[in-house]
Amino acid sequence: HSKQNGKNQFSCYKPYYQTEFNRRFNIQNEIKNIIKEETFRLFYQPIYSTQTETIVGFEALIRWPEMDEMFTPDEFIPVAEECGLISELGKWIISTAVQQVALWRENFKLSLTIAVNISPVQLQDKNLLPHLIDTVKKNGVPSDSITLEITETALFKDSEKITETLRQLSQHGFKIALDDFGMGYSSIAHLIEYPIDIVKLDRSMQSFVDDGCKRYKVLESLAYMLNKLDLTIVAEGIETESQSSLCKQLNLDYKQGFLLSRPLPVDQIDAMLASPSLS
Ligand code: C2E
Ligand code: MG
Ligand code: MG
Ligand code: MG
Questions:
Q1: CA-CA distance, 27 to 115, in Å (whole number)?
Q2: EAL domain: which residues (predicted)?
Q3: Environment class of residue 40 by beta-carbon count within 10 Å: exposed (0-12), middle (13-18) or buried (19+)?
Q4: Secondary structure of residue 47 in the 3-state scheme
Q5: Is the CB of 94 under 6 A from ligand 1?
Q6: Between the N and C ends of the chain, which has fewer C-beta atoms within 10 Å?
């Protein structure tokens, strides 16, 4: 009855935090099972060269298994981080994605790259580097075909330790991308302080494109600065033709977004790579 009487003060018999707690607890248990059953899936979103309009690589994006209740990565990744499951899950993500790109490189004779999202917790795990080294060796792919996408939240933790970790990853040839740049805490200091190779412009910045005035000038100047710093620039969230064509004008190296392709399962990427229009 309580649910029907929205305005009744007794209707709120379950405090928010408790339902939130239960929800998280349930997701947590499900994640454990799904890891055990190995039924998480990776989708791959193509990344295109702005110059040639061809696929240069992919970003691996995790997907909840197909079941009644589906969670998005934004919902379950934070839970996996909090309950200490992200390192194990992250390990699986790296192995699977690297193995997949090795297959595509071999089957289609293309020097494709793979970008993997690395959570801040994973970046602090000392097993990350050995696992990456082991994985590229096992699959026979060059480490510079692997991009590690990190967000700025990872850079606030313990800056000296993070610098050292990133430096080691870099020394081994792995590419470091700063994800979602232009959102929230984006700081130019990060671009100077850390060994970053690639900057991914957050998709919220795409709204700057059609703006025409002040915000467009910010985007234009930002692109100019990032180019000056010899950073590789990826435009995320390309949804319109005007956004897509502007990438070339602003000298952005790569582009990614629903207009070009959504994240897709392996078989659909296979079909895409097999299509002759690519080569
Ligand atoms: P992200 O790394 O910034 O990934 C890009 C997100 O934008 C993806 O959402 C992708 O599906 C979506 N996207 C791509 N193009 C467009 C577009 O044109 N328009 C719009 N509106 N969206 C677009 P997704 O897959 O739901 O992932 C959300 C976030 O969850 C990711 O943001 C990343 O932070 C995290 N995530 C996803 N997969 C993984 C993973 O394997 N490991 C970790 N640690 N985090 C992951
Ligand atoms: Mg990403
Ligand atoms: Mg992003
Ligand atoms: Mg994001």
A1: 26
A2: 24-277
A3: middle
A4: strand
A5: no
A6: N
Distance 137 CA to ligand 1 centre (A): 27
At residue 97, what are phi and psi to the nearest 5 degrees? Answer: -65, -40
pLDDT in tens, 81-109: 998 999 999 999 999 999 999 999 999 99
| Of 276 and 274, the one with more pLDDT | 274
Regarding the beta carbon of 77 and ligand 1, being less than 6 Å apart is answered yes
pTM for the whole thing?
Answer: 0.92
Give the distance (Å) from ligand 2 centre to CA of residue 66.
Answer: 22
**Ligand 1, atom 36: closest residue by C-alpha:** 73
Amino acid at 178: L
Hey, which bits of the chain come out as E strands?
41-49, 55-63, 113-117, 146-150, 175-181, 198-201, 232-235, 254-255
